[in-house]
Amino acid sequence: MARWLLIATLLALPAGARAADELVLWHAYRAGEEAAVVRAVDAFRADHPDQPVRVLAVPYGAFAQKLKTAIPAGHGPDLFIAAHDQLGDMVARELIDPIPIDTAVDRFLPETLAPLGRADFGLWGWPLAFKSLVLFYRTDLVPAPPATTDELIATARRLGGERRYGFAYPFAEFYFHAPWYFGFGAELLAPDGATDRVDSPAAAASGAFLRRLVLEERILPSDANGALVTELFNRGRAAMVLNGPWFVSEIAAGVPWAVAPLPVVSDTGRPARPLSTVEALFVARGRTRPAVLALAAALTSDEAARWRAELAGQPVANAAVYEREEIRASRTLMTFRAQLADSVPMPTAPLTAMVWEPLNEALRQIGRGALGPQAAFAEAHNRIEILSRPLPEARSPAPYVLVLLLLFAGGLGWAVVRRPPAVLRRLVEARLAYAFLLPTALGMTLLVGIPFLMGIGIGFFAFGPGELRFVGLANFTKILAAADYGVTHPLSFYFTLAVTMLWTVANVALHVAFGFGLALLLQPTWVRGRGLFRVILILPWAIPNYITALVFKGLFNAQLGAINALLGKLGLEPVGWFDSFWPAFTANLTTNVWLGFPFMMVTVLGALQAIPEDLYDAARVDGASGVQRFFKVTLPQVAPALLPAVILGTIWTFNMFNIVFLVSEGQPEGSTDILVTEAYRWAFMRNGQYGYAAAYSVVIFVILVLYTLFTRRLLAGRSRA
Amino acid sequence: MRVPLWHKLLVYGVLIAASAVALFPVYAVVLMAVSRGAGFSAVIDPDWSALTLDHLRRFVSTTDAEGRWLFGRQLFNSLVISTGTTVLGIGLATTAAYAFSRFRFPGQRAGLAGFLVTQMFPGTMMIVPLYLIINALGLVDTVLGLVVVYSTTSLPFCVWMLKGYFDTIPTDLDEAAIIDGASHLRVFYQILLPLARPAIAVTALFSFLGAWNEFILAATFLSREEKFTLPMTLYRHVGAYGADWGAFAAGSLIVSIPVCLLFFVLQKHLVGGLSAGAVK
User: How far from B247 is each of A225, A262, B218, CA to CA, in Å?
Assistant: First the structure.
């Protein structure tokens, strides 16, 4: 016991309590950008040998979440690097301090300061660098970059061919469509900062331009994501791509390339204007002090900026860097610098966070030919209206508290009425059972029970920018009434519920069928190499599913996927896997069955071991056939161990987030989304409507409880039989 | 008993086909890991002249800002955290499953149902509340904090699986032992645990894998690079804009090797089962 206590204490020791004067910097940079930041920190260390500094590189996928949880709890950094489009949210959550008013900022490019401005005066952070799209082209294919969109189309048409494209970019992401959208004169934000109508005639004209690129001229691949565009470019199968500064490090060695500013839109005579993002250094709330400001000064100095420009090819915010001889010689950096003047800063208002999803959907529909440009943007506008409706009215929590108290009192009364001595006696009798259960019950209550109740509680609130209000059952009624969309619309709650059920049933049935079948095949002792087969067959479970899901997405790619290539060899028509519901659903299902069968297989393998051989012998003596032995011996013997796995498998599949989110991404039109991905979208992609998302989760939860009650009755029925 | 040849051929045929299907996406990941171009289309059109071990080497030789060998540290952290999770989880789950399987007590059904119910709430909604609790316990940024979180979140599954398996073990065995004067604790340790080895192997694999591949909670709770786990280094290769897919694929393969080894070790128990137990 003493030994265990010692080990527990050792494990619990914090890794050296934070030194009082240690400076902490968090970032999500990698590769060259990380190296340049570390170099600047090293220079600071050399100048301030007594000042400890700790740099932490956080995985980008967890960075925003980490900042949001750690800073309010007092475990955050002093300084961190983030993109300015998070600014509205960070201010609303009170994550950052403004930088001191007397900071000299005139050494930064004015375009990089504007997005960091505060409403009153001063700035929220120091600009480090900016990112926007420009035109990358292969100089072996395109001798001179197109100056207008008409030239671009002509060049691309000339270079296209069998599995070759003149031009490529992920057109279904609004970030990549933005240059045309703004170039055709459409606006995202009205002058007062509110969301403007996204279905203006100019927006429709930009949509018509996209349709021309994809469907009429056929110069764009119709199913392109970022990784694919990189591949096409590196292999000379795409002559021109829209991309940002990060793309430079992805271009393969030996590929001749150059960059040019985006072309002028021929229809309007205006330049195409991409969205621009400023990456800035922020001070975490309440951490402003001289040492922090000194480190910030070192990180944003002209010298540090030069390292970022040289080591990472970063388009930096310091004006002086662009005066240097070697930087002036870099055509890439100077092009980004020039493009900045013709760009639109990414909006920061928290409300604009919800325009991307509907706009992406509109672009996808235009590219697929499902809707005309005007209709697609009109639909996007409707969806934005629905998403940005005002929060439900605040309600008084009093009646809810009263109901809770009454329920509690009722429960207590019920317990008293039910003859306490008997209950007490049974409790005492079962004390041994409770002793066995105690540690588990404690841990579960604390770490699963309490977060769970908190999660349910959040469902009764609504979150606005910087505000939290109690709204009672409003979130729930809104979900269940399906008021926003018709019941059969792919975005309505009931449609998603039906898809979720279909998804769950199909998956679990196939998991059990494949898992059981393979376990049976691996059972007989005469099968050679059983150990090897077993290990091969659990590989789908062992490899992180993030990457295998993306591999499957690549296999199902319409133009370059292995599956369509195979269909082509068999003389069949290629399938647009994510263009309609059933193929997209099948792609998700295939991926998840591949991932999920090993678990059932391993469970059944374990359960098969518990069947005494004599049962089979007896059955054989009775003359039972193989099929009869399976149904009379194997199945009943395996069932008790398999049932929990099936119940749990059902629940997990119901809540299987990664696959749907990564493979079909809910396409088309959100129809393959299941309830849990929909809840995630509400919480993280639609302006942090946590209350609504939690209510969604509670509804999911109630459905699952009803399901288990149903199966329990089923089980009870079985055991009685 | 003699097995007909056609039957053997059929079994091998299905097993080989299934292995091929299981391996194809893995093969794709391997190709991405060893191709210089490093992208998803390496799969359709591999460039055999540009194979490289750079990605693998780079992942294994990652160092931190001070030049210390991070991979070794993080492998060690991952092993400690996943093993700790498995040991704690199995320890708690076997006792709880024993109580649920062998005793009748008030709250039994509610307790079992309660375990299940907690699995139904989407995990993404639990991160913030969990963080607040772990922070209140003073366990943020500690290995123990992560072990406690991982093992409790995998507990409901472990308890259900083990209870299901315990139910298949005839109660005559423990009743006979109790009549012979054995305590419940002895019955649990000396009869049920050895017999339940296949189920314990399954649940151990499950707990281990859950802790081994998790990264969102780990990245939220840990703030020191030397405490990081392997998946955090892995997901570092996916950035805000684009990703280093070659390095990510290489990392995924390296990260899954220990899991395969563990399974290889555990499968002895999966098939050992009854014959190795106390029945004979």
Answer: 19, 31, 20
Q: Show residues of chain B in contact with A539, CB under 8 Å.
A: 22-23, 26, 256, 260
In chain A, which among 551-590 make CB contacts under 8 A with chain B? 551-555, 557, 560-562, 565
Burial A105-134 (b: 16+ CB within 10 A, else e): beebbebbbebbeeeeeebbbbbbbbbbbb
The DSSP-derived string for chain B is ----HHHHHHHHHHHHHHHHHHHHHHHHHHHHHHBSS-SGGGTTS--GGGB-SHHHHHHHT-B-TT--BHHHHHHHHHHHHHHHHHHHHHHHHHHHHHHHHH---TTHHHHHHHHHHHTTS-GGGGHHHHHHHHHHTT-TTSHHHHHHHHHHHHHHHHHHHHHHHHHHS-HHHHHHHHHTT--HHHIIIIIIHHHTHHHHHHHHHHHHHHHHH--HHHHHH---GGG--HHHHHHTTB-SS-B-HHHHHHHHHHHHHHHHHHHHHHHHHHHHHHHHSS--
* pLDDT, tens digit (0-9, with 9 covering 90-100), for A425-457: 777 777 888 888 888 888 888 888 888 888 888
Radius of gyration of chain B (CA): 23
Enclosing H/E stretch for A522: none
Contacts of A66 in chain B (CB under 8 A): 219-220
Q: Do A30 and B206 touch (CB under 8 A)?
A: no
B interface mutation test: which of A56, A277, A547 has the most B CBs within 10 A?
A547
Cβ of residue A344 closer than 8 Å to a chain B Cβ: no
Burial of A402 (0-12, 13-18, 19+ CB in 10 A): exposed
Q: Does the beta carbon of A427 lie under 8 angstroms from any beta carbon of chain B?
A: yes
**How far is the C-alpha of B86 from the C-alpha of B210, rounded, in Å?**
9
- Determine contact: B93 vs chain A, CB below 8 A: yes
**pLDDT 10s digits, A257-304:** 999 999 999 999 999 999 999 999 999 999 999 999 999 999 999 999
Q: Is the peptide bond before A668 cis (omega within 30 degrees of 0)?
A: yes
Burial A570-579 (b: 16+ CB within 10 A, else e): eeeeebbbbb
Distance, in Å, from the CA atom of A384 to the CA atom of A349, rounded to the nearest integer, reads: 14
Mutant choice from A128, A447, A566 vs B, greatest count of B C-beta within 10 A: A447
Q: In this structure, what token pair is assigned to residue A152?
A: 């671009």
Rounded Cα gap, residues A306 and A289, in angstroms = 26
Distance CA A475, CA A692 (A): 6
Tokens of A709: 């009650």
Looking at the partner chain, which of B28, B39, B149 has a beta carbon nearest the beta carbon of A447? Answer: B149
Dist CA A245 CA A243 (whole Å): 7
CB contact under 8 A, B99 and A436: yes
Does the CB of A434 have a partner CB in chain B at under 8 Å? yes
**CA A483, CA A492: separation in Å to the nearest integer?**
8
What number is the ipTM of this complex? 0.86
Of the candidates A12, A227, A598, the beta carbon closest to that of B40 is on A227
| Alpha-carbon dihedral A103, A107, A113, A117, rounded to 10 degrees | 20
> pLDDT class for A119, splitting at 50, 70, 90?
low
In this structure, what token pair is assigned to residue A349?
Answer: 């208002």
Gap from A685 CA to chain B (nearest CA, Å): 13
User: pTM to 2 decimals?
Assistant: 0.87
User: With an 8 Å Cβ cutoff, are B168 and A640 in contact?
Assistant: yes
